[in-house]
Specification:
The structure is a homodimer.
Chain A: H1 9-24, H2 31-38, H3 42-48, H4 53-75, H5 82-99, H6 107-112, H7 120-137, H8 146-170, H9 174-193, E1 196-199, E2 202-205
Antiparallel strand pairs in A: 1-2
Helix pairs in contact in A: 1-2, 1-4, 4-7, 5-9, 7-8, 8-9
Chain lengths: 209, 209
């Protein structure tokens, strides 16, 4: 392979960081281990990432976050219903989780649970990622009003992140399948009623024309 | 306060570990920080926990896990419906998360996302905790068959864990409220559909109860 096609030190460092964040979160991702895993020369780290670990983690999370909207396009392909697309999303997540040895979660989720007060910038990256994910899901959902589309999109992201947590503990992808069944059931049941109405602090299904 | 009523070094070390796990997960919980935070004499650590950090983390997670069934009794009090109990569970989780400065997640969840291959014993503790939580939720759910009760119980645990992830990133408890709305909607919609199904054989409901 010609040298120009090989991943650069910069991209190798980011890939190693993303992988380590998925495996063991923020505190479990040590700079020395990232460098060793990437195979990049140690000197390249502060050359490419002068702000050190925080910069490396921020950029790796941003790369990780961008995968989700691209993934959605694969499932919401315009041919299947939203329910079928969500079913495929959760069952594929289960299979992929198992294919990767049940050892890799979501980098954003793992970091979010490790945040300390001094990680304000990283917290903003995580928040932005979940926000972007909900925003890319919402327009694909078959509810007539934007507020319900947005609310259900957040519930889907919550279900995916929660499934990663239980799946890591279980050592298999079953929590994705279980969560996916209820996401599809909730979608089917509530769209057949057409509307979720805001009532005081909680929303409950009601009969809509 | 008489000396006999003061928490022992052992319990202070466990409380400090539980708090640190909730804040920043497994790798973020250093032995030295635990000892400093607990105020316990350094010598007491290996006296009470001869197997070191792994024993401390295992026991702190077991204590954390036991809180959930007790919490459920508060909400499923025999007076309110399952839907009302779940609504109260999620809205209280949101308020409590915010009251604690939006900085404390679920210790089990934070550890589950930090696990490395060598943490097999800790993984089992996490898995057992989620399993016990689903088992304590299932009998309280109004589905006629055990498999559906169990499945929805897992979905509720997934929703709570996912809400912790998004709430840590957002810095507020809103993801709990959002997830709770959909858990209640899914429960109401699927249980009312079952009632209608039993009445009218196989038609989808077009009206709410």
């Amino acid at each position: 392979m010609p040298a120009t096609n090989r991943p650069t030190s910069r991209s190798r460092l980011l890939t190693a960081t993303e992988d380590m964040l998925r495996e063991s979160g923020m505190a479990g991702t040590g700079i020395k281990d990232v460098v060793a895993r990437s195979g990049a020369p140690i000197g390249s780290l502060y050359h490419h990432f002068p702000r050190g670990k925080m910069q490396l983690v921020s950029e790796a999370l941003a790369i990780h976050a961008e995968r989700f909207p691209r993934l959605l396009e694969r499932f919401f392909d315009g041919k299947r219903s939203a329910a079928a697309a969500l079913d495929a999303l959760f069952t594929t997540a289960a299979a992929e989780f198992e294919r990767q040895g049940a050892a890799k979660g979501c980098a954003i989720g793992a970091v979010a649970l490790d945040l300390v007060a001094s990680d304000a910038d990283i917290r903003r990256v995580c928040h932005q990622a979940f926000d972007d994910w909900a925003a890319s899901l919402a327009p694909r959902l078959p509810f007539p009003d934007a507020a319900t589309r947005r609310s259900f999109a957040v519930a889907i992201v919550v279900a995916l992140e929660g499934a990663f947590v239980l799946a890591r503990a279980a050592g298999d992808g079953e929590p994705f399948r279980e969560a996916g069944r209820w996401i599809v059931a909730a979608l089917s049941a509530t769209t057949s009623r057409r509307r979720i109405k805001r009532r005081r602090s909680s929303r409950k299904p009601t009969t809509a024309p």
